Amino acid sequence: MKLISLFTALAVTIGLFANAGRKLYQWLGPLFPGMGSLAYGIVYGLAVTGILGAFVVSRIPNNHIPAPVFYADHYLLGFIVYMVMFVNLAGFLVFLAGLLRILPSPLSFRAGIAAGTIPLFLSAALSVYGTVHGAVIQIKPYEVQMGGKDAEKAPLRIALISDLHLGYVIGEHHLEKVIDAVNSTKPDIVCIAGDIFDGDAAVPADPEALKALFLKMDTVYGVYACLGNHDAGPSYGRMLEFLSEAGVHVLRDEAVVIDGRFVLAGRKDSFPIGGQGDKREKLTLPAKAGELPVIVMDHQPGNIRDYGEETDLILCGHTHKGQMFPFNLITDAVFDVDYGYYRASVDSPQVIVTSGAGTWGPSQRVATDNEVAEILVMLPVRQ
Fold this sequence. Notes:
By secondary structure, the chain is of the alpha/beta class. Helices cover 38% and strands 17% of the residues.
């Protein structure tokens, strides 16, 4: 069934790309009278497959292709995604207008030019906006109560980030802005909910500079992380070495007691893209945990049903909140919670899903934010 769904989705995607190319030639072809349909088809096909193919190759470790090629490709990827959506939408609207006899069929020269150029303009405009907006780091505040209403409590400030995707596009400049935003919240502890890397720890141009930035995070209890699905693969050992040298404590299906106040656990990813050493194991809390509140970092919010009343708070990432409209509508439909605060019932753990502080694929954010989640947790005071 999954294989059928995959092939169906692939066929639909190819059809949308092909139809977008056909419509652009139909509408804008008169501007290039010297270019026949065959020549246009070859140029369009090579451009699209080149952009998509370069992105696929960028996922392969040790590909030996210059980084600037992938850097440019990630920006073009966002443009063609919107181009395909807008051109097909324009085609549907033109077809509908023809049925209603609002527009002539076939379109006049001017109407055809408008039908072709407007989607391209919107695609370019949204890509530029998404790129600019994606460079801004927002602060998203939350407040979480633990323990009974009458219990004496003391604040714990958590800075939650995820999905940095350090690699070809996200590097020192962007990470510095994230670290500055984290430090502005004056956290007691920093939690990183996975996908620190973009699948290959060998890609970042200056790993020592990145380590130095991580070490600038100013906290009381330190920086802790769990693993995401992209924190895996042939360079997995190198990832762990990098994080250790960067002062990040990676919890791999482990839990630690922090200052006798709470338990912090981190999970391996449930569906890693490549190896993460041993498979994900059952989480066992330390014997000295007692009645302390339990906070769990688990990259994928699809796992929240695995936890019961023994867990107080789950911190997740992964979804990017769809990253670019309209994909946020898809993540909202797929997950119980794709973003923000969630609690299924009074007996269930509280959940916070962050949209992440980086991007995957197109380096753009449209209708979503790169963010640091500033979480004020009111912990019961241990008597």
